[in-house]
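Saturday, quiet lab. Running sequence design on the structure tokens for the scaffold JK sent over.
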């Protein structure tokens, strides 16, 4: 699953990370990629949110702070049922911005073999997004020069432009998984959250989870990704 959890703040204005964890458990999610994880105490978060989101069912995790303050951080997180062999944080910025953007890159040992799961959250500026996407592909390619593992790239791309040079660029390097719009959660018409994959031995499907209950958890809807071995 990929899910922008809006700092854990639901549409009712209450912050309750446990509601997100309950959804993961009910759907038996093996790996979750989160955006807008908030652990800063001044913003209502806490360090324990990481272990809460991971939980006993997905104890392995890699986090990628994009903003770090004295009382915590804000950024991306991957939690996994399966062991994480290695985790990397890719800095996607060409120049320093107000909110730096990164990608969290985890190599995970799954029943289907090793799979690279990469989560990111790109900028609101169209020019920054394009630069960040180019940096992301370059940094991804530089990691595995000898051993090539299947890749899942997912997250909040903040791309609503149609036609889109950014999407065309990513589609030229990875295979997009079709799914429905995710934003805003109460009346979704923008495909801000997306999924791509690469690998000869994977068959991937992606479905936007759109129910009345789920739509109340965040301003984005989550995408559930299913992987089948060929």
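Result came back. Writing it out in full:
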């Amino acid at each position: 699953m990929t899910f922008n959890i809006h700092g854990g703040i639901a549409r009712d204005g209450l912050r309750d990370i446990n509601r997100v964890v309950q959804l993961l458990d009910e759907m038996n999610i093996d790996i979750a990629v989160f955006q807008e994880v908030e652990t800063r105490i001044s913003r209502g978060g806490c360090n324990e949110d990481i272990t809460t989101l991971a939980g006993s069912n997905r104890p392995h995790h890699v986090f990628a702070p994009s903003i770090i303050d004295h009382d915590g951080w804000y950024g991306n997180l991957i939690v996994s049922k399966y062991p994480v062999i290695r985790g990397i944080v890719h800095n996607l910025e060409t120049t320093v911005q107000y909110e730096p953007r990164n990608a969290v890159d985890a190599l995970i040992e799954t029943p289907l073999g090793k799979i690279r799961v990469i989560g990111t959250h790109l900028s609101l500026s169209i020019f920054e997004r394009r630069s960040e996407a180019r940096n992301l592909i370059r940094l991804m390619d530089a990691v595995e020069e000898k051993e090539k593992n299947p890749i899942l790239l997912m997250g909040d791309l903040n791309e609503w432009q149609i036609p889109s040079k950014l999407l065309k660029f990513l589609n030229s390097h990875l295979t997009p998984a079709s799914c429905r719009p995710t934003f805003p959660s109460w009346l979704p018409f923008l495909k801000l959250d997306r999924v791509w994959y690469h690998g000869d031995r994977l068959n991937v499907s992606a479905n936007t989870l759109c129910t009345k209950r789920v739509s109340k958890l965040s301003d984005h809807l989550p995408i559930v990704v299913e992987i089948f071995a060929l």
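Notes for JK: The helical segments are 17-26, 48-54, 126-143, 165-173. The chain has a mean pLDDT of 93. Ask whether to fix the surface positions before the next round.
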